[in-house]
Design a protein that fits this description.
It is built from 11 helices and 9 strands. It is an alpha/beta fold. It has a 5-stranded parallel beta sheet with strand order 6-5-7-8-9. A 4-stranded mixed beta sheet has the order 1-2-4-3.
């Protein structure tokens, strides 16, 4: 439940439009609701500015649907990561949008978009992770622009998008293989950079470890590095940086 929703309930009590008893029913599941197998945290947006997000991997379809419905009932919005089209269909919520590349399902989110988050991918194969970052940041209320396939094998493609780098408030760079793109971008701009290693690559990429180590060892100071394939984490951090006043 968001701040404005709680304020609306309290205002209704103050004006007599809602009884204290009915208000208590509205708020009784704060700060969390016990579903036995899960405890949806309806209070998290108030505490952290980011609502609880459902990680679908490892959960049964029924569990994901029940958690999502509990969250939808309270806030009319939710975000699910690592989901499937089957889960999307099982939700039976018209507003639910399935982002096929990343496996993210979104409902609602902040309508007003602000700032400018730029998401770059080194290659087309990195799009699933980049989309997770972009959808997450958009859901939270950031304006997002994505540029794909501008890796180090053809730097002229990145240079052609120099204007996008200059306009961004924060840049998310997703790269697999050797993970070199964040360092290159970091040498071209003073914007905060969030590097996301992707698990794409041949054998010695070791499922993204090579890219992760390259990003951690970047000679460009001040680059934040996410875990492998953690587009969601990058989306959250980019939004927080983007909305700093």
């Amino acid at each position: 439940m968001h701040f404005h929703q709680i304020k609306k309930v309290l205002d209704a009590v103050g004006t007599g439009k809602l009884s204290p008893e009915d208000a208590a029913k509205e708020l009784k599941h704060l700060p969390y609701e016990d579903l036995s197998f899960a405890k949806p945290d309806h209070h998290r947006h108030l505490r952290q500015g980011v609502p609880e997000v459902v990680f679908a991997a490892g959960k049964t379809e029924i569990q994901v649907v029940q958690i999502a419905h509990a969250m939808y009932k309270k806030s009319r919005s939710f975000l699910i990561t690592k989901a499937t089209e089957k889960i999307h269909e099982a939700l039976e919520i018209k507003e639910a949008v399935f982002h096929a590349a990343s496996g993210v399902i979104s409902v609602g989110g902040e309508r007003k978009k602000t700032g400018n988050v730029l998401v770059l991918t080194a290659g087309t194969s990195d799009i699933p992770v980049a989309e997770e970052a972009a959808v997450t940041a958009q859901f939270l209320g950031s304006r997002v622009h994505t540029v794909c396939d501008v890796g180090v094998a053809g730097l002229h493609r990145l240079m052609d998008n120099r204007a996008a780098l200059d306009k961004a408030r924060v840049i998310v760079v997703v790269a697999g293989m050797e993970g070199a793109l964040p360092s290159v971008v970091g040498g071209m701009t003073d914007r905060p950079i969030i590097a996301v290693p992707a698990s794409t690559g041949y054998g010695t990429s070791f499922g993204g470890l090579t890219a992760l180590f390259a990003m951690l060892n970047s000679c460009v100071p001040g680059i934040a590095v996410m875990n492998i394939d953690n587009g969601f984490g990058a989306g959250c951090l980019s939004h927080r940086i983007n909305t700093i006043r």
